[in-house]
Amino acid sequence: MENVQPGRDSHDKPKLGIALILLSAVFTSVGQLLWKIADGQINIPLLIGCICYGAGAVTMMIAFRFGKLSVLHPMLSLGYVFALIMGTIFLDEHISAMHIMGTALIIVGAIMIGGGEN
């Protein structure tokens, strides 16, 4: 008899991989935002940014244990979406129509790739 843990069957693994890769994209985007805020200085935002970026890398490595590289790695592109949103909110950056169209394409692509995973 196979030892199956609740919530850990074969259908949950790809979902966990996707959730972790999205978390990785958020961590790395926040890290990059903090680097930008640090403005080339060695300060608290720079250090916290490095920690966030490192956490993103570790989370990515863990995510790859739970899904296909061909599905998970392209989903890291959602980091561009997160960066665009954070740049607008925290850095008062302007979003153009081209930004919106490009962001929509990234989101659609990520949904198509992630939705193809069984």
UniProtKB/TrEMBL annotation:
Sample GO molecular function, one term: transmembrane transporter activity
Any one annotated GO CC term: plasma membrane
Which key words are in the record?
Cell inner membrane, Cell membrane, Lipid A biosynthesis, Lipid biosynthesis, Lipid metabolism, Lipopolysaccharide biosynthesis, Membrane, Transmembrane, Transmembrane helix
Q: How does it sit in the membrane?
A: Multi-pass membrane protein
* GO biological processes: lipopolysaccharide biosynthetic process
Q: Which residues form the EamA domain?
A: 17-113
Places the protein is found = Cell membrane
What's this protein's family per the entry? Belongs to the EamA transporter family.
Kindly provide the name given to this protein in its UniProt entry.
EamA-like transporter family protein
